[in-house]
């Protein structure tokens, strides 16, 4: 937030010198003068050391001390003091006779002087030639989130985030859309350690976040950067006495709910469905009226407590932080808690510096069981939650009274519970040697390890109709993950007159290891209290398993930045990577990039007062990818040896007179042995402008991204006999073109300060070729074909309902064949697109795209005196999505609950788009029609906060230096026509991106936060 | 000093990285052998062929869903499942051709099995064996099993692609016609017949022998009405090497329990075991080897009850008594029906009849004889072919070849085992002519083999689904056949996803 400590140190030094000069003048002059003193604070209310305070139009100045205090003598009562600090808005204040003057400084939005971490080095923001977003951590840390990714929503253009919702689930972050079909997350670099910012990482420790969005920016991470890079730097201590910061947040969460029928309405509709089908009605238990959403959902809550100690001296600094986070989910028997601890220290002696960052955390998640999001719909209101007559004591479907296979979520939560616990240690040690001013050698060793434990207990008892008998089962697995990173870099940084050269060369090596063992026992010993002795010594029929995974990436990198007279900037990067995950002849890849910028505003011929900065830039770069999403749990080879055909040795057969068990072995899964790098070639054209006294900032970019040989699972013919996830293939090539515009206005020189930032992203994706030389692939209700966006809807078209038998009889093709002869009034009319007189799969057509045309982010902020307000909006427009909820609840052929207020077709009520109720026939309920497609456009208030900075007078009395109270809310308002639970749903299957298959919805969160410093 | 130390560090690391050899990136998979180190030894060959048998245990094949196709789709069974789509696929209401449990999974598992066969047939010839006979036996088993899987594919979809080589990911095989599929099955079975033994030793009991091969040869010929060829295959059991090796067990129930498996009546069985209780469709360690048929077919509140028997079968059994004047004992072991307790004193999984008065469920392979519930781990071997079936097939072949008089004795053998009088006693009219005998034989097969997954093939073979009039007659026993469209529903639609993604495939006609 305060830039880099180096700058602060210089400021301190400058301050001391100026103070000495000032006192010298003070002694020698005999004018009658006024002394003014006061406190300078930052936007969070924390005291700011080393802020420069000058008397306008003089050379006189001082700076604030460690506690943010200053004292200055002014020549007269109308003197104007100028308060300035790097990356903060300079303030000019007339003394007006006051003797105390407290000032709060606010950071400059998109400050050009900002130092940006770009990977293996830093750059000033004004010198950037690639697309890099810097996320304001002041915004970030106010948010109540579990993971880092979630916190990024709405804070940077082109970065799309969908939170997990479930306690402990990880957000999905997509930078500049679909460049990688396998849907892997971006690369996270935390203090130089290449890793993932998963739920074990405490977002409160973040000092700064930069997002490398285009190929030229990310190229330094070469093969690992195809999905963008998020660089996170954790907080460091600053010079001075120990500072203590406390923050605490408590939140309440609610889940969106379906509007479902209660018993009375349900029974009326259900009887109608049976009557229409000529079936005998079920004997519904009308005495029950269960609201399954009440049974399965609850108000969730979160607590997040942080305590940070930091400080430092001349030659070193330290930071120690602790965090406790707890989340009880909105679904019963789900939760997550985390305890984390961090120590960051560094020291310098002469040309040598050393430092470390270390975080230890333990996270434990009580996992969701079954799919309550769907089960609350599948269960009928006439079923009781508890039913002593059933094994296990829970209510569920009944053949005579409630024919549904829906699972009782209360029963599953109790009878089939599991949790995951991870103890993670992550950190790095670095040392730097600066033999001469312009040369620096850095050695960085990162290490991460986690000890993972999964446990599952299946109690005896049932949760659905006619379920098979299962004894009690305990199963556990324990695993260890290790990742070692070794990096050596040498940087050169020197100016020769108007020429400035900054270069870095280096080598990196990273090795990942994962090993797991698992065990399972059945028929446990009951403990007499409704549970079991579930340690694996108990029980019988043991099973054990285990596997190991290993991968290595070896890389060489180099970068040169050159600038001439601050007008012409050039940046070139090359990285060479070798990956063990690829076919042996294709392990190495080269990833070059080049970018340039022209700062027009520094040209002599272009001096306009209203333009503070204007820069044009262009870049070209290539990135790679060798990993695929790890979605095949338990497959020990997936993701690590995708190119190796292996023998599955797990078949067992019974044979012989005594039915002894014999082993079998065979190849089960096919592979593509020649897997090669997925590459992304990106061209980027941008303009950056700062106008009207830095009040308006504008960034516009146009990019063309060609992704070749996307590494992902691609469906193959079932006749191959391949089993499991389809083999990883270089499955497709895609072209993404997009336009990104960020426009900001900020007014910070008055007492009422505000800013408005908008960002708009448009993105078009087009498949340019498919693996195995194919022209199309059909998956579910979608088709992905060359020349079109991926995953287009391919379904039958409906054409309203038949209102009368006459309409049925008159619905004929050109030859006069009645197309739907067996239909009855109230049934759906389908379009016979091929005119053959019948409705078959050949009538399916492409009807829509699951991709949004435009995404819009809107960030607003305002502050007045001690109050400040922040708002983030996010919207996506133009996607067509499949409403999985409607496709279940409006089927009528099967028993599930109905939507409250639904109006099915009846002769008396023909003006509806819902067909007649009909139990037991799928003809009206088929899933492969456009009946379930809807517009997925939405605009959502993702975040709203109101903060109040506590007055100093009050704080002093309790011994604090700073204090702030924040009230905030997430997902408070959504504007959408979509009728599912959440238009911002998440489907990781790239071919079915628009399919809302009961994914966990975004939650509404209300939070109260307190921050104190002393 | 410190500076020197750092130069050493720098130098050592740059040396280290130049020392990084190419093979640093070549990490061996420590978990399992790769294909290029396999298929080298006799043991590899043995394991390879064993893995084919493991396909019987997959849910879409013989542990679960195929019974829906063969038993429930026929006029013996039907579905009242609350899972309507599952039920629709037993009553010719095929809407979504990609429905997994009804169509795609069985198709996929069939080809998974064929891939395993093809691997053995492609790789084992290159392995050196000490004894050529052992090698031939392994190849013979693979050929038999490939033929078996194609036989059921031919019954279900008819026009399936013939995949005869180990697959590659980009394979898009050509479609074959039904006669081409039959020809391939015939070729495989004939080659298997050459090399498989008349009988296996105790350790290998359960692997296909010449009897198993001849049984499927006969079935395959009979589906094509090649009666003379079928007779040659079946002669094996009566005048050939197999004569005297097979006999009917005295207790009819022994054909369906786990207590008397691989008995004298067994021609080919799937060897189920409850030793491994793991998830039902995983290729992981300790793979499941059991059947879930009983869990899916058991009466409501005991099992899923996704399938049950048509009640007309009860009436058919009760038309005739044993020579002692008792009810046909096969009724007792074939069905759960309302009067079971009254007629034979048996409860249903320990309960008295609790269901509708016109309902019945399949009792064969149910485990109520030793437990009061079901699960996914039934261990009773499924008898794919037993000698009683061979006797009735032989009778049918002889009748079709015009030798009705000879045929009668084989039917009588089957009746005699359960105490039923000779055909001549109650069914003299059936002995009068080929057509009358055929009609009686249809009933005899029903009474003896109900619920044993042969009925769908029988209906197809008899032509009972070939014209609307005949289908009407079937529909009187099983109203699901009112949905049956002649020429269309005689075969399943190919999975739509295959037709879309493989341009060489054409959807079956009418779909």
From TrEMBL, chain A:
Q: Which UniProt keywords apply?
A: Cell outer membrane, Membrane, Transmembrane, Transmembrane beta strand, Transmembrane helix, Transport
Instruction: Write out the transmembrane intervals.
Output: 12-32
Which InterPro entries does this UniProt record tie to the protein? Beta-barrel_TonB_sf, CarboxyPept-like_regulatory, Plug_dom, Plug_dom_sf, TonB-dep_OMP_SusC/RagA, TonB-dep_OMP_SusC/RagA_CS, TonB-dep_rcpt-like
How does the UniProt record describe the way this protein sits in the membrane?
Multi-pass membrane protein
Which Pfam families does the record cross-reference, listed alphabetically? CarbopepD_reg_2, Plug
Membership in a protein family: Belongs to the TonB-dependent receptor family.
Protein's name in the database:
TonB-linked outer membrane protein, SusC/RagA family
Automatic annotation (TrEMBL), chain B:
Give all residue intervals belonging to the RagB/SusD domain.
265-511
Q: Which InterPro entries match?
A: SusD-like_N, SusD_RagB_dom, TPR-like_helical_dom_sf
Query: Is Membrane set as a keyword in this record?
Result: yes
Which branch of life, at top level?
A: Bacteria
GO cellular component terms, alphabetically, are:
cell outer membrane
Alphabetized UniProt keyword annotations: Cell outer membrane, Membrane, Signal
Indicate whether Membrane appears among the record's keywords: yes
Q: What is its main location?
A: membrane
Family membership, please give it.
Answer: Belongs to the SusD family.
What is this protein's record name? Starch-binding associating with outer membrane
Q: Which organism is it from?
A: Olivibacter domesticus
């Amino acid at each position: 937030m305060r830039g880099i400590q180096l700058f602060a140190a210089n400021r301190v030094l400058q301050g001391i010198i100026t103070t000495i000069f000032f006192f010298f003048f003070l002694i020698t002059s005999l004018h009658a003068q006024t002394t003014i003193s006061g406190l300078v604070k930052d936007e969070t209310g924390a005291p700011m050391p080393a802020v420069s305070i000058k008397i306008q139009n003089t050379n006189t100045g001082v700076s604030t001390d460690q506690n943010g205090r200053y004292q200055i003598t002014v020549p007269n009562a109308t003197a104007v003091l100028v308060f300035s600090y790097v990356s903060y808005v300079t303030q000019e204040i007339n003394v007006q006779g006051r003797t105390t003057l407290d000032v709060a400084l606010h950071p400059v939005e998109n400050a050009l002087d900002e130092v940006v971490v770009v990977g293996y080095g830093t750059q000033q923001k004004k010198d950037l030639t690639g697309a890099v977003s810097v996320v304001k951590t002041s915004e970030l840390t106010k948010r109540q989130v579990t993971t880092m990714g979630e916190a990024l929503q709405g804070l940077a253009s082109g970065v799309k985030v969908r939170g997990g919702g479930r306690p402990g689930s990880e957000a999905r972050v997509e930078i500049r859309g679909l460049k990688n079909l396998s849907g892997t997350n971006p690369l996270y670099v935390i203090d130089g350690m290449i890793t993932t910012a998963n739920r074990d990482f405490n977002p409160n420790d973040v000092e700064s976040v930069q997002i490398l969005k285009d190929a030229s920016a990310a190229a330094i991470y070469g093969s690992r950067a195809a999905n963008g890079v998020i660089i996170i730097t954790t907080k460091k201590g600053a010079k001075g006495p120990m500072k203590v910061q406390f923050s605490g947040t408590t939140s309440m969460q609610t889940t969106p709910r379906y509007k479902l029928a209660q018993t009375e309405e349900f029974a009326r509709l259900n009887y109608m469905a049976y009557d229409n089908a000529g079936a005998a009605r079920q004997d519904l238990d009308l005495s029950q009226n269960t609201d399954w959403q009440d049974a399965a959902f609850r108000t969730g809550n979160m607590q997040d407590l942080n305590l940070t100690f930091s400080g430092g001296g001349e030659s070193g600094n330290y930071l120690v932080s602790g965090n406790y986070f707890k989340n009880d989910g909105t679904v019963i028997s789900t939760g997550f808690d985390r305890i984390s601890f961090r120590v960051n220290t560094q020291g310098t002696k002469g040309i040598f510096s050393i430092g470390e960052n270390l975080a230890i955390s333990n996270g434990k998640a009580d996992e969701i069981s079954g799919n309550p999001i769907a089960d609350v719909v599948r269960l009928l209101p006439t079923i009781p939650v508890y039913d002593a007559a059933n094994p296990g004591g829970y209510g569920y479907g009944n053949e005579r009274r409630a024919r549904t296979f829906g699972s009782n979520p209360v029963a599953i939560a109790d009878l089939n519970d599991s949790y995951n616990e991870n103890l993670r240690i992550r950190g790095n040690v670095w040392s730097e040697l600066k033999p001469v001013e312009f040369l620096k050698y850095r050695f960085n060793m990162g290490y991460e390890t986690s000890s993972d434990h999964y446990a599952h207990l299946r109690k005896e008892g049932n949760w659905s109709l006619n379920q098979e008998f299962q004894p009690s089962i305990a199963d556990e697995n324990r695993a260890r993950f290790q990742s070692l990173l070794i990096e050596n870099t040498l940087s050169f940084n020197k100016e020769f007159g108007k020429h400035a050269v900054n270069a870095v060369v280096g080598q990196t090596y990273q090795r990942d290891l994962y090993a797991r063992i698992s065990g399972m026992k059945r028929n446990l010993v009951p403990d007499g209290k409704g549970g079991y002795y579930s340690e694996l010594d108990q029980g019988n029929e043991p099973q054990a398993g285990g596997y190991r995974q290993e991968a290595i990436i070896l890389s060489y990198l180099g970068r040169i930045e050159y600038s001439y007279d601050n007008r012409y900037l050039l940046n070139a990067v090359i990285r060479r990577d070798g990956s063990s995950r690829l076919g042996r002849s294709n392990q190495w890849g080269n990833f070059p990039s080049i970018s340039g910028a022209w700062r027009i505003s520094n040209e002599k011929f272009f001096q306009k007062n209203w333009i503070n900065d204007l820069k044009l830039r262009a870049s070209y770069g290539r990135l790679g990818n060798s990993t695929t999403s790890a979605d095949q749990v338990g497959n020990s080879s997936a993701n690590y040896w995708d190119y190796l055909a292996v023998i599955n040795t797990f078949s067992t057969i019974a044979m012989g007179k005594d039915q002894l068990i014999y082993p079998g072995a065979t190849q089960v899964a096919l592979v593509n042995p020649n897997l090669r790098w997925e590459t992304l070639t990106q061209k980027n054209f941008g303009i950056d402008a700062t106008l009207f006294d830095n009040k308006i900032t504008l960034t516009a970019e146009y990019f063309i991204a060609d992704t070749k040989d996307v590494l992902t699972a691609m469906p193959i013919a079932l006749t191959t006999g391949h089993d499991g996830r389809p083999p990883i293939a270089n499955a497709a090539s895609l072209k993404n073109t997009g336009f990104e515009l960020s426009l900001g206005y900020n007014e910070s020189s008055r007492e009422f300060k505000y800013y408005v930032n908008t960002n708009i992203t448009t993105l078009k994706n087009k498949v340019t070729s498919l693996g195995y030389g194919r022209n199309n692939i059909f998956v579910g209700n979608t088709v992905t074909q060359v020349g079109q966006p991926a995953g287009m809807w391919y379904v039958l078209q409906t054409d309203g309902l038949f209102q009368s038998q006459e309409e049925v009889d008159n619905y004929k093709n050109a030859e006069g064949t009645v197309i739907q002869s067996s239909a009855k009034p109230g049934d759906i009319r389908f379009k016979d697109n091929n005119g053959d007189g019948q409705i078959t799969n050949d009538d399916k057509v492409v009807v829509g795209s699951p991709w949004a045309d435009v995404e819009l982010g809107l960030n607003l902020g305002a502050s007045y005196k001690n109050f400040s307000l922040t708002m983030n909006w996010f919207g996506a427009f133009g996607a067509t999505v499949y409403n999985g909820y409607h496709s279940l609840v409006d089927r009528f052929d099967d028993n599930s609950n109905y939507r409250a207020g639904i109006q099915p077709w009846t002769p008396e009520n023909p003006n509806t788009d819902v067909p007649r109720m009909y139990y037991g026939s799928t003809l009206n309920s088929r899933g492969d029609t456009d009946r379930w497609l809807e517009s997925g456009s939405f605009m959502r208030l993702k975040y709203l906060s109101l903060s109040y900075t506590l007055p100093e007078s009050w704080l002093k009395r309790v011994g604090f230096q700073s204090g702030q109270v924040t009230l905030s809310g997430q997902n408070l308002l959504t504007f959408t026509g979509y009728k599912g639970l959440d238009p911002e749903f998440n489907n990781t299957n790239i071919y079915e991106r628009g399919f809302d298959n009961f994914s966990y919805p975004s939650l509404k969160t209300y939070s109260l936060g307190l921050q104190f410093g002393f | 000093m410190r500076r020197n130390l750092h130069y050493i560090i720098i130098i050592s690391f740059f040396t280290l990285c130049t020392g990084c050899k190419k093979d640093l990136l070549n990490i061996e998979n420590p978990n399992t052998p790769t294909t290029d180190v396999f298929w080298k030894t006799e043991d590899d060959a043995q394991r390879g062929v064993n893995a084919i048998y493991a396909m019987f245990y997959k849910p879409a094949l013989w542990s679960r869903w195929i019974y829906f196709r063969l038993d429930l789709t026929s006029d013996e069974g039907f579905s009242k499942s609350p899972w309507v789509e599952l039920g629709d696929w037993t009553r010719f209401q095929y809407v979504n051709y990609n429905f997994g449990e009804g169509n795609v999974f069985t198709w996929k598992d069939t080809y998974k099995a064929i891939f395993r066969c093809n691997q053995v047939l492609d790789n084992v010839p290159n392995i050196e064996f000490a004894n050529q006979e052992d090698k031939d036996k392994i190849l013979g088993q693979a050929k038999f099993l490939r033929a078996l899987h194609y036989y059921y594919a031919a019954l279900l979809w008819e026009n399936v692609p013939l995949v005869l080589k180990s697959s590659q990911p980009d394979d898009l095989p050509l479609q074959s016609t039904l006669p081409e599929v039959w020809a391939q099955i015939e070729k495989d079975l004939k080659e298997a017949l050459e090399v498989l033994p008349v009988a296996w030793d105790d350790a290998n009991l359960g692997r296909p022998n010449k009897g198993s091969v001849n049984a499927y040869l006969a079935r395959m010929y009979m589906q094509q009405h090649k009666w003379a060829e079928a007779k040659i295959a079946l002669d094996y059991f009566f005048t050939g090497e197999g004569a005297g090796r097979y006999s009917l067990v005295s207790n009819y129930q022994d054909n369906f329990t786990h207590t008397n498996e691989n008995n004298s009546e067994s021609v080919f069985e799937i060897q189920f075991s409850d030793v491994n209780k793991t998830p039902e469709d995983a290729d992981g360690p300790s793979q499941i080897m059991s059947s879930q048929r009983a869990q899916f077919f058991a009466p409501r509140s005991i099992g899923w009850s996704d399938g049950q028997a048509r009640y007309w079968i009860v009436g058919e059994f009760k038309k005739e008594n044993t020579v002692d004047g008792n009810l046909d004992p096969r009724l007792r072991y074939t069905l759960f029906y309302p009067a079971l307790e009254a007629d034979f004193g048996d409860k249903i999984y320990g309960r008295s009849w609790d269901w509708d008065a016109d309902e019945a469920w399949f009792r064969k392979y149910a485990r109520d004889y030793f437990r009061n519930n079901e699960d996914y781990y039934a261990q009773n071997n499924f008898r794919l072919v037993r000698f009683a079936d061979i006797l009735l097939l032989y009778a049918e072949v002889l009748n079709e070849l015009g030798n009705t008089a000879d045929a009668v004795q084989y039917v009588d053998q089957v009746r005699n085992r359960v105490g039923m009088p000779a055909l001549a006693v109650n069914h003299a009219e059936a002995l009068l002519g080929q057509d009358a005998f055929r009609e009686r034989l249809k009933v005899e097969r029903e009474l003896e083999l109900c619920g044993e997954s042969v009925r769908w093939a029988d209906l197809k073979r008899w032509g009972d689904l070939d014209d609307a009039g005949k289908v009407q007659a079937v529909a009187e026993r099983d109203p699901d056949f009112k949905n049956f469209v002649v020429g269309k529903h005689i075969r399943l639609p190919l999975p739509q996803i295959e037709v879309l993604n493989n341009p060489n495939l054409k959807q079956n006609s009418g779909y």
